[in-house]
Specification:
Shape: elongated
Largest sheet: 4 strands, antiparallel
Radius of gyration: 19 Å
Order of helices and strands: EEEEEEEEEEEEE
Number of helices: 0
Strand order of the largest sheet: 10-9-12-13
Helix content: under 10%
Number of strands: 13
Strand content: over 45%
């Protein structure tokens, strides 16, 4: 996960990685050392490498040109969990519609192992647990509120449901 944070001065880009997509997160790492404003990070992975690109306002002292797109890459160990493919069928699902959404979204599920769908923010913090009927099909509406009923901020969230011995994770984009 890559994000920029401007709470402590100019926006700075940070990242964390996870070996299991939810529970086991690395410590927060600063991605760049530029004292100028850095923003709009994007991340992609391909062939065992992680690529991050971002925009910032640094100036080249030789050309006096300011601003540009920067990127970095590193190798990430990606683990593959083996499972019996007969467990996962079209009957096991978690789908979101609409997505992106601006007030509410519907989570459609079927045959979940646990009786809940968890909503996490981009930092991996659990913000809401939605109770569902495990082993059945159904729909539940998320109104973009946290566990205390407060509206969450615009951004990226993740819905996680357990389907047998693996997690199904779907990215949600909330736009106010």
């Amino acid at each position: 996960v890559v994000w920029y944070d401007r709470r402590f001065g100019p926006p700075t880009i940070y990242y964390v990685s996870s070996s299991d997509s939810i529970h086991d997160w690395s410590d927060k790492q600063r991605l760049e050392d530029d004292p100028e404003e850095s923003r709009f990070p994007v991340v992609a992975a391909s062939n065992g490498k992680v690529y991050v690109a971002w925009a910032d306002d640094r100036c080249d002292p030789d050309t006096n040109i300011c601003g540009g797109i920067y990127f970095t890459r590193w190798e990430e160990q990606v683990g593959v969990e083996e499972h019996d493919d007969t467990i996962l069928t079209d009957d096991n699902s978690l789908e979101i519609y609409p997505n992106p959404f601006n007030s509410v979204t519907t989570l459609t599920y079927s045959n979940l192992k646990r009786d809940e769908i968890q909503i996490f923010n981009i930092s991996g913090q659990l913000i809401r647990t939605l109770k569902v009927d495990s082993g059945k099909q159904g729909k539940i509406i998320w109104d973009a509120t946290d566990a205390q009923g407060n509206k969450v901020s615009s951004g990226i969230y993740f819905a996680r449901a357990r389907i047998y011995n693996i997690s199904k994770i779907v990215k949600l984009i909330y736009i106010k």
